[in-house]
Amino acid sequence: MKRCLVLMATAVLVAGCGGGGGGTASSQPNQGGGSPAKVTLEWWHLSTSEPLKSLWAQRAKEFMAKNPNVTIKATVLENDAYKAKLTTITQSGKAPDLFATWGGGVLKQQVDAGLVKDISNDVADVLPTFTPAALSAYQIDGKTYGLPTDIGMVGFWYNKKLFEKAGITQPPATWAALLEDVKKLKAAGVTPIALAGKEKWPGHYYWAYLAMRIAGLDALKQAAVDKDFTKPDFIAAGQQVKALADLQPFQKGYLGAGYGTPDGQAATMGNGKAAMELMGQWAPVVQADAGKGLGDDLGFFPFPAVEGGKGSAADAFGGGGGLAVGADAPKEAVEFVKFMTEMGNHSKAVESGGVLPVLKGEESAVKDENLKQVATMLASAGGYQLYLDQAYPPAVGQQVNDSVAELIGGTKTPEEVGKDITEVAKTEE
Fold first, then answer.
1. Cα dihedral value 178, 183, 185, 188, nearest 10
2. Distance (Å, rounded) from C-alpha 180 to C-alpha 101?
3. DSSP string, 77-90
């Protein structure tokens, strides 16, 4: 997130800038009344890693083969670059023809600005084929503004060999146990956690999950309404992030580390240089793409419970990826979104390990044992929280990322974090 990245798991983004608050498709009139008018669709997405990078390119080729009048121009951007570019475009009153979205508050702001097409009627025939959880982030006030291509959750991916080296026999079920395991790993000469400090969004996962476990899901939803992040439970979440950071658990140079770069978080994990990373369901693929990958040594466990917290350990935090259509994009853009999410096409992406099921009946396509565990936990989750940098308006989400990065870096206190996020939230209408 996000949330979100070399976010493999988040679907495709399409980019194009176009006039009047909509897409950038260019079309040539049908002069002879025979063949359809030529259309160019600009598509931005952030699947910069395999297998999705190639799979999405193949889907575009297949669609163009079926629709010779359509040319799809894909722009593939890394997570932070994508967010920045999309923000710049939408602030100018334009939107790509097709673009990746995580839904939530960011999508709502784009909808309110008239930049996203209401595709409710166009996709009414296929809506029943999606799982409600996967669809929820793209439906606002009863209308549909995108279709999901992925759904998942953030949790801890860990190196079984390094846990064994430190004498840890099972993953921690509580936050206190996790802090103890960090100490054991350090004592064994193992870097406990890999973190992309430069990109900030991976760090916000810690504060968000701790807020969920300590304050509860309802408190995070209420904070979006009353715009107050200074309540004691939010401060307590910050204090626990600080307790972790004070143990100095991260790899050397983490403050300058990216996520999917050769020396970044995923590579550090994939090359066996750290014992854990808190990341979404796309983590194994990016670990193998940026580094060597851990194979059978890779395990997964959910974010631990916090003793005395109001939140349930069964509540999941995460999101997925979806495709939205620019307000002025031609009908072919909607047709491509439907094509991407047809069972026959989408299940291939699930089989590849690039995404998790969003369609009913796709579960059998999940082959990887760790991803099956994620899918099972998702299915039994008591509650679900979208990445905070997507659930809240963009400025608030960015402040969460910035403030938590400062907290982890030791330049802001838990109280200052709550105050800074609150100040930005109160400026958002």
1. -160
2. 38
3. --HHHHHHHHHHHH
Q: Three-class SS of residue 252?
A: coil
DSSP class per residue in 327-359: TT--HHHHHHHHHHTSHHHHHHHHHTTSS---B
Secondary structure class of 412 (helix, strand, coil): coil
Name the phi and psi angles at 323, rounded to 5.
-115, 125
Length of the chain: 429
Which tokens sit at 233?
């439970």
The kind and range of the H/E element at 75 are: strand 70-76
- Give Cβ neighbours of residue 75 (< 8 Å, ≥ 6 apart): 13, 14, 15, 16, 42, 43, 44, 45
Residue 99 CB: number of other CB atoms within 10 A? 35
Q: Would you state the torsion angle of the CA atoms of residues 345, 350, 355, 359, taken in this order, to the nearest 10 degrees?
A: 70
Task: Return the number of other C-beta atoms located less than 10 Å from residue 361's C-beta.
Answer: 11
Which residues on neighbouring strands pair with residue 279, listed in sequence order?
155
- Parallel, antiparallel, or unpaired for β 276-279 and 155-159? antiparallel
What does each of the 429 residues of the chain score in pLDDT, given as a tens digit? 434 333 333 333 222 223 233 344 444 545 445 678 999 999 999 999 888 999 999 999 999 999 999 999 999 999 889 999 999 999 999 999 999 999 988 899 999 999 999 999 999 999 999 988 888 889 999 999 999 999 989 999 999 999 999 999 999 999 999 999 999 999 999 999 999 999 999 999 999 999 999 999 999 999 999 999 999 999 999 999 999 999 999 999 999 999 999 999 999 999 999 999 999 998 998 999 999 999 999 999 999 999 999 999 999 999 889 999 999 999 999 999 999 999 999 999 999 888 999 998 888 899 888 898 898 888 778 888 999 988 898 899 999 999 999 999 999 999 999 999 999 999 986
Q: Which residues face 187 on adjacent strands?
A: none
Rounded to two decimals, the pTM is 0.78
Token output for 323? 């495709």
